[in-house]
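Annotators were shown the component list below and the corresponding predicted structure, then asked to write short factual statements about the assembly.
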Amino acid sequence: MGMREFYHCSMKRVVITGLGVTSCLGTDLETYWAALLSAQSAPLVVTDGNARIENELVYAIRGDAPPSPPPGIGLLGRSSQFAITAARSAFRDAGLDPDGYTGAGIAVGTGFGDTGLYEDAVAGHPMPSGDDAYPFKVSSVLACEFGFTGPTTSISTACSASAYGVSLAADLIRAGEADIMLAGGTDAYAQTGGACFKRMGALDSEVCRPFDARREGTVFGEGAAMMILESEDHARARGRLTDYGAVEGAGWSCDGYHPTAPDEGGRHIVRAMRDALADAAVAPGDVGCVVPHGTGTPLNDAVEGKALGEVFGDGPGSPCVYSLKAMVGHTAGAAGAFALLTGALIIKHGMVPANVKLREPDLSCGVTLHTDGPRPLPVSRVLINAYAFGGNNITVVIGR
Amino acid sequence: MTAVVITGSGLVRETAPPDAGPGAWFDPVPLLGRRGWKYLTLATRYLLGATHLAVNDAGLDPAGFPDESMGVVVGTNFAALPVFSRITRIVVSEGPEMISPAEAPNFSVNIPASTISMRYGMRAFNITLTNPMVAGLESVLTLSMAIRQRRARLGVAGATEERPDNRRIYEGACCFVMEPVDEVTRREAVAKATVAGGWCRFSPPGNGLRALRDPLSRLIGQSGDDVCYAVAADGDIDSRLDELCQQTADRMGIRMRRMGEVDGRYVSVSPMLHLAEQIAAGQHGLVLAASGHGHVAALRLTR
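Structure shown to annotators:
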């Protein structure tokens, strides 16, 4: 397949200048990174008193008091709560006071949005009404919270939503629509989503273990990962270039094959990876690490592993693979943003944390996961995959 | 910059007051055939129906194009909520094992858009947008940008809504086939409107739409001609938008003429109906959509 030619409205470089996270591993970057380095994580058993679901495993967030709704917002769902907290952290990390940048924009991905409010309503809480009735109002919440007037979008391509959010945010900056974009994703545990996965036989009964021979399915996580994207010129002008790298390219594709299963040939996820590399104008050998979608679902991991082999080969020069969901679970619409945020931290620290040890690596996937300690990042560039129901695929390349 | 044009429109919608049950107004057979839609949600059926009409209107044979050259972008707010709520009630009262396996995937709001890709082999990309009220207009803007970036040669942009339990909205779907002007020439199709520009912004509470003045001026000032416009809005933001349009027109010395009534009843489909009406009437102008929270999108059509 030849290199695809992309056309952008300008050649503006879009850099990452701030990160913020709300996760089961912690709500500040230092704690999150330290937890990743420990390579130890386990889901909690969630007792959902409102639903007839027994012993559901979730990489759940416990603790922190929720933020108050911003002006203009009534009911605040947990996805929105996570997003506010992570976004505030991202602005602090970027050294930005949002009050001074009201022209900034927002691109947030979420699979469930604030549909948790509807689950609560079935259990007797108030039914969302008026403006609160919109299930996917996270972007509205964030815009009200920070008073932003720039381009604002909400993407819900299921589990690839937030990676699309970051890609679209970078496009909007390149198009001159904004100098600063808050981009990322958020999703809270949703009993309905979990129950549907259980009904489809897509949940693991023990732990999230992508690329393990005994994997049974995924285990949901929850949280938000947000990043501040800026035009490089804007970041330089305010003296805030960072070591997180830039959004260098993105490749979009769709399997168009089945509502839930991937195309077993992997043709379109290979295309997404190659298009992302072409968009970034780099070769496979220029990538130091891959954060795969890797959910623990038997067929998905097998197809992705084969596709990675097709793009990168399996020789000594192939990039490290970091299997993030073994640490944070499958954070649904936020998964791509979690992978991107982790990729930015890998670039900043110049190392790839050790993977969680698997009991029985599935050699047929063709994916080698290092478990003997962190590895140096040989090339400061990370490729991130995010896939979804309906085969809504995306690959994003970040690097410096 | 590559001009992106609309070559086909497709529309299905509920016209009587929504007193009957969801879907009672829609017969899928003439548009979708007798089989293959039983396990699809109503929102998905509406969207497929509108896509069928738009593709026919454009004279497009998707099978004649490489699948990776055609993209799909769909806006919606409530497409998944009816089935989500139905499944939630089952989970609470009976447990996950009582969920219909055929219905289970439909909890995800991107399934309607994904079904277009499966049916028509449109595999360049598939995106679902969900900003309140404005997601439909955003789908046109997003597909337009993606075509200009060469992420697709052509595609379908649309919106669909299904009535949830707690909101008395009108149901329907509206789709447009969009392509670059050189593709239209190549396949000897007819360009019905050109996407001349647009944006999606936010006006926070207390901002008084001030932030929209410059982007609106740029959009309507492109040609210097008089502009007709339509508004689809939720809540009292409508009158403020109207005022903003008139003030902007006065300042620029042009005349802005409002078309039709404000119609937010179809939620994200509402502004798409205005677009379809402008195209059908040959009165290309401006369509605005706004949510009560403060999302505002604008799209300018020219001939």
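Statements collected:
1. Chain B has nine helices and ten strands.
2. Chain B has a mean pLDDT of 94.
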